Amino acid sequence: MFEGESESDALFRAEVRDWLEANLAEDLRNSPVKLTPAEIKPWFDQLLAQGWHAAHWPRQAGGMGASLPEQIILAEEFARIGAPETHATHALNLVGPVLIEFGTEAQKEKFLAPILNSEVIWCQGYSEPNAGSDLASLKTSAVLNGDSFVVNGQKIWTTMGNEAQWMFALVCTNPHAPKKQGGLSVILIDLASPGITRRPIKVLSGDDELAEEFFDDVQVPAENLVGELHDGWRVANSILGTERFTHGHPRHLTSVLGAVKRMARKTGAMDDAAFRDRLAGHEINVTAFTAYFRHALELTNADISPGWAASILKLYCTEEIQRLDDLLVEAAGGHGLDKDIVGTDEGGVDIMGRFLGDRRNTIGGGSREIQRNIISKRILGLPT
Ligand SMILES: Cc1cc2nc3c(=O)[nH]c(=O)nc-3n(C[C@H](O)[C@H](O)[C@H](O)COP(=O)(O)OP(=O)(O)OC[C@H]3O[C@@H](n4cnc5c(N)ncnc54)[C@H](O)[C@@H]3O)c2cc1C
């Protein structure tokens, strides 16, 4: 039992742990490569049958309606065993909850079940070539014309933009609004609509998870508006906090820490007292961060969070991941620059994939500089 955990939560943790040991296939644990939707499908179906795939969704929306401690337990136990994330994660964590809060009954009816069943992949279309940190400056326009919006413009850096069937997009519906934030709306765009061109973006680590999309007179039914017209800034921001919690989740740290230990045992770095000392320092950081994460989540859940915890979590977690990646390269010794997966007795590790891929974490979901600005202004009250 974890310190402070109630008896029923401890029982739930034991149940989750046993179930994962019995059900999660060995070759899906701590996979060093990103698994394809087809490879993950059997695992997702098991989770679906168990009812644990949408723990944070309310029961009426088809979720598990799990308590906060149960949600934390699930995430921690999934991380401990190295369970893969499903391709529905983005939609389950971001799109679904927003539709539950702001969507019309017709939108809930149409979109929630396919998200729950992982039948549809969603992406988030916020950033544009000249609107990332200064998101409110975005220019992609959606002009209401009868029953449809006509969309023109470009989105970029879209995660899963190549594979997604639908986009949750923030667009400009009133370029003359006195405050730019007041002229934005959120609409749901079917990416199979005529007038859309997609281009993959190859990144440092070699994958093409990101894409850019061009919109040329794309017709979007007016019923795909989420929330009120011109109230998109509020709707969009309700995702950003959740997104930063997702980026700042301790499971990311647990995963790299596990890889460092496996590698250090293989190469013998673990026998070096100086290395063990540094590793212990990071282990303490991860433990402390996990405790802070739980606390921040409890405050947020009780609606008593001042709202900035997400920025602290995102900033610390993504920077600590990069420090752990440095330690991984050190632990690997002569294998540190290997482009291929490096085998250990406890599974392979994609050292360069992690090292290069995790550079992006301090940018996506709001850059580290922007998180520091938020912390300095809203928490420390420093002058701008
Ligand atoms: C892996 C990854 C996934 C992403 N996924 C998505 C997605 O799914 N959907 C989506 O819409 N977007 C996505 N993005 C885009 C991401 O949100 C933006 O890249 C990010 O907000 C930064 O915007 P930008 O790239 O336009 O850089 P800019 O805003 O142009 O910033 C350039 C640099 O200037 C710094 N800077 C800017 N303004 C300030 C300031 N006021 N003070 C101090 N420094 C500043 C920034 O920190 C950065 O270092 C993703 C990005 C990455 C890397």
Question: Topology of this protein?
Answer:
Elements lengths: L6 H17 L13 H14 L17 H14 L7 H14 L2 H12 L5 E4 L15 E5 L2 E12 L6 E7 L11 E7 L5 E6 L8 E12 L3 E2 L5 H16 L2 H18 L5 H29 L7 H24 L18 H7 L10 H12 L5
Parallel strand pairs: 1-4
Antiparallel strand pairs: 2-3, 3-7, 4-5, 5-8, 6-7
Helix pairs in contact: 1-3, 3-7, 4-5, 4-6, 6-9, 7-8, 7-9, 8-9, 9-10, 9-11
Which regions are unreliable across 5 or more consecutive residues at pLDDT < 50?
Answer: none
Count of helix runs? 11
The largest pleated sheet is described as:
4 strands, mixed
Could you give the distance between the termini?
46 Å
Task: Assign an overall shape.
Answer: globular
Q: Return the CATH architecture of the largest domain.
A: Up-down Bundle
Structure classification: alpha+beta
CATH class call of the largest domain: Mainly Alpha
Work out the strand percent.
Answer: 5-15%
Tell me the Rg in angstroms.
21 Å
Strands, total number? 8
Describe this structure in words.
By secondary structure, the protein is an alpha+beta fold. The chain folds into three domains: 7-86, Butyryl-Coa Dehydrogenase, subunit A, domain 1 (Orthogonal Bundle), CATH 1.10.540; 122-231, Butyryl-CoA Dehydrogenase, subunit A, domain 2 (Beta Barrel); 248-379, Butyryl-CoA Dehydrogenase, subunit A, domain 3. The chain is built from eleven helices and eight strands. A hairpin with an 8-residue loop joins strand 6 and strand 7.
Short description:
Helices cover 46% and strands 14% of the residues. With 384 residues, the chain is of the alpha+beta class. A hairpin with an 8-residue loop joins strand 6 and strand 7.
